[in-house]
């Protein structure tokens, strides 16, 4: 046994003569939340479909808790939330989940499950009357139902309001907390930046980065921005520290991670001339731009 609930090793796949996945290696450990990022057409959905056993791969291997994708065991251990989830509109939420439970052989407390995803009031309403966010919550209830080893979520928050997004990530955290390995394909960078443990970035069918946010930052060597607000005279600060005047009262400098403390010492040596400082390390948007453009093929 391994604690890697999902193991993707050197996967190769082509469509016709065109490679769409090349040398893709990506592991997700038990209880880990990994974001899968990439431009349109980078191969995220193809990778997810390969893990689900819905499309064949032409090299490498994929294992879901040591089981082959598409096998009975892998199907039992995997849950999937597609981006545009649809259910039978004539069924109620309770009926739909009961049906899923029967199919999977589980006997969960359906009402408790629907309450957990915030659908207690809509339990006996037809799904045809649900909003997109409510359907997405029902989809998440279906993911929770099987206590999966691996959950694959494709753009889980697309079209959701900010509160629903937050609720959804709380449920994802709970899923991971109970030991599910969660892979989230997303374009919502600021969300996944705060809510995942590791970030994998795909570009043209390859994984071009796979690390924690801190690891990606270190390797990218992107600069930290320091904005200094002057008490009286921004020109004086610019003369001493260098950098760029950004408005009447502030100066901004950019420095490498290793030079940050020296820069801060220099700034504090100006004493009362400095009213405030604001430090902004590179965010996921900067890192994504860096890695998604770094390797040109
Ligand atoms: N059914 C298909 N037939 C032929 N080519 C396909 C098919 N599905 C995807 N592709 C191609 O495979 C490549 C990867 O597509 P994929 O849908 O996996 O990307 P993605 O990263 O999920 O993109 P998006 O963010 O737009 O959903 C693209 O070049 C796409 O054109």
Automatic annotation (TrEMBL):
Give residue ranges for domain ABC transporter. Answer: 6-229
EC annotation? 3.6.3.-
Q: Which CDD domains match?
A: ABC_DR_subfamily_A
SMART domains, from UniProt?
A: AAA
Q: Origin organism of this chain?
A: Shimia thalassica
Q: What is this protein called?
A: Putative ABC transporter ATP-binding protein YxlF
Q: Which PANTHER family match?
A: ABC TRANSPORTER, ATP-BINDING PROTEIN
Q: Which domain of life is it from?
A: Bacteria
> What taxonomic lineage is listed for the species of origin?
Bacteria, Pseudomonadati, Pseudomonadota, Alphaproteobacteria, Rhodobacterales
Question: MF terms per GO, please?
Answer: ATP binding; ATP hydrolysis activity
Q: Which family does it belong to?
A: Belongs to the ABC transporter superfamily.
């Amino acid at each position: 046994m391994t604690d890697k609930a999902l193991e993707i090793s050197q996967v190769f796949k082509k469509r016709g003569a065109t490679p769409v996945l090349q040398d893709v290696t990506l592991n997700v450990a038990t209880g880990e939340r990994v974001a899968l990022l990439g431009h349109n057409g980078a191969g995220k959905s193809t990778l997810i479909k390969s893990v689900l056993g819905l499309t064949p791969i032409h090299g490498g291997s994929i294992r879901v808790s040591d089981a082959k994708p598409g096998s009975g065991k892998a199907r039992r251990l995997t849950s999937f939330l597609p981006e545009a989830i649809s259910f039978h509109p004539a069924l109620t939420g309770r009926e739909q989940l009961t049906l899923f439970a029967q199919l999977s052989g589980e006997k969960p407390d359906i009402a408790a499950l629907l309450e957990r995803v915030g659908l207690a009031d809509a339990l006996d309403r037809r799904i045809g009357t649900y909003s997109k966010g409510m359907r997405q919550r029902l989809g998440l209830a279906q993911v929770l139902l099987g206590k999966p080893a691996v959950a694959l979520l494709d753009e889980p928050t697309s079209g959701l309001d900010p509160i629903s997004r937050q609720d959804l990530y709380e449920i994802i955290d709970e899923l991971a907390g109970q030991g599910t390995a969660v892979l989230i394909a997303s374009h919502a960078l600021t969300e996944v930046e705060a809510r995942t443990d590791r970030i994998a970035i795909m570009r043209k069918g390859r994984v071009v980065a796979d690390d924690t946010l801190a690891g990606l930052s270190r390797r990218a060597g992107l600069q930290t921005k320091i904005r200094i607000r002057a008490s009286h005279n921004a020109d004086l600060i610019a003369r001493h520290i260098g950098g760029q005047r950004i408005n009447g009262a502030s100066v901004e400098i950019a420095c490498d991670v290793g030079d940050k403390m020296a820069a801060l010492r220099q700034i504090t040596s100006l004493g009362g001339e400095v009213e405030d400082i604001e430090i902004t390390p590179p965010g996921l948007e900067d890192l994504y731009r860096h890695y998604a453009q770094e390797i040109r093929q």
